[in-house]
Amino acid sequence: MNTESQNSENFLREILFIVFANKRLIIDTIALIFIAVLAVALLAPKKYTAQSTLLVKGKRVERNPEIVQQLQEKRQEITREDLNSEAEIIASVEVLKRTILALAKNDQVFDIPLSTNGNEAKDEAAEEKLIKTSSKLASALSVTVVRSSQVLELGIIWGSPSEGEAILKELVNQYLSYRNAVYKPEQTKDFYDQTVAAYQSLIDVKSSEIAMVITKIKAPESSKEIESNLAVKKDYQLQLGILEKSRLALTSELKYLRKQLDMVDQVAQFNANRLPGHEKKTYQFFSNIENQAIRDMANIVHLKLEEYTKISRNFVASSERAKSMKAELDKSYRTLVREVRALMEHQENELMAVRDSIRFLQSKVDEIDVRNGALAQYQMQLEKLEREKRLLEKTYENYYRLKEESLMFERIQSASLNTQIIVLTPAWASSSATFPNKRLLIPFGLVIAVLVALTVAFINEYFDDSIKRASDSERYLGLPTISALSNKEVTTKPSYTTRIIRFFINLPKKLKRTSNK
């Protein structure tokens, strides 16, 4: 018990010894720090705080293609991420720049060079000044989310209460405006307008191309014309078949007639070459020719030949009756040959007419084929254009509907978007300066000064390896103390301020020396 009490007394005595040994150092340190705190409290420029609070009522209405087409609104609960997003928008560089430019435009708070139309100047100096001012404003601004609520608390520390209040008011206005631009961009309406106009132009172009194709082909209903042409072609082909049969029959008959007439010529040549006294003629009766007139004439020739034969049996060839009968027989035979030749000429003319008809019908069939080929080609082109036009019209209808629905949602959001953010507390500035707060700063500075001074004293004592008491020689050197002499020599000691400065200068060396030990 006595040992513990003695150890406690020694510990307290050591602390008091250190304090009294470094009392001047402690007093000077406290004095220096307290003077610095007083200088800050009395001489530092005053800062005033402007505050405002916002309530986030509900999350913005979601707009995606499915919800837009179903004409539905889906509202979600507010999350911590949503509140942090709103805080980021408030403290964004764009909102800060808009606030600075709006105040500078009204000749308030900031002096930023502007262009003639009131916008930001495009020179480097103005841009650099705007960036620096935005950084200054960002460092002075604080946006916090009140715990367990949907409230955003805005604060700004500024040198003038009126300027701080004006900055915070304008900041809230620019935040609401920029928020509208973020959640309801104007580009959406422009996009739908431009897209609808573009598709309308494409539809007009396709309609013009279709009209040009119809005008070029001169057949509004090409499929019906193709069917009609195919029916006509079928009739022409039937006629061609009939004419082809006629042509073949006429060709065969003409071949037979030529052969028969050639035989007539051969018989005539044979009769002409007979020796005198052998003038008996050979006749060709064309019995296989399918012609009634020729058959009748052939029968007449045959009868007269029989009659002439009977006469020639009873009369000599030089008799009048034989001559007369012979003349009639020759005349009838010549008539028969002329009829055959006339028939052959008629059939040749008829064959030429049939051939002309065949060529004419064949040309018509070829024209129909060419026309149908052109119609089919144009029909394919027309169908392609029609498909493209229908696709464009469908796309046009979709975008037009989306445009109308976008306008409807825009009207709904225009009425409700700003009501989602409610200004609970308008911007207001404190009448008293928040910095420096003398009532808080001076006592707090005094406490800090005492703590720092004691810390310096203990650090100085820790690194001071000189022997100050008789007991130190026994503790550190292990040698007994025989006697102690007081140092009566008067020496000029440096001031305590100088000693404090030297202490902090030599502190790294002492730390290094201690670590080496």
From TrEMBL:
Signal peptide positions on this chain: none
Database matches in InterPro entries: Bact_polysacc_biosynth/exp, LPS_length_determ_N
Ranges that cross the membrane: 25-44, 440-459
Coiled coil: 344-405
Mode of membrane association: Multi-pass membrane protein
Domain Polysaccharide chain length determinant N-terminal positions: 12-100
GO cellular component, one term: plasma membrane
Domain of life: Bacteria
Compartments in which it is found: Cell membrane
GO MF terms, alphabetically ordered: protein tyrosine kinase activity
Keyword annotations of the record: Cell membrane, Coiled coil, Membrane, Transmembrane, Transmembrane helix
Protein name: Polysaccharide chain length determinant N-terminal domain-containing protein
Annotated organism of origin: Pseudoalteromonas piratica
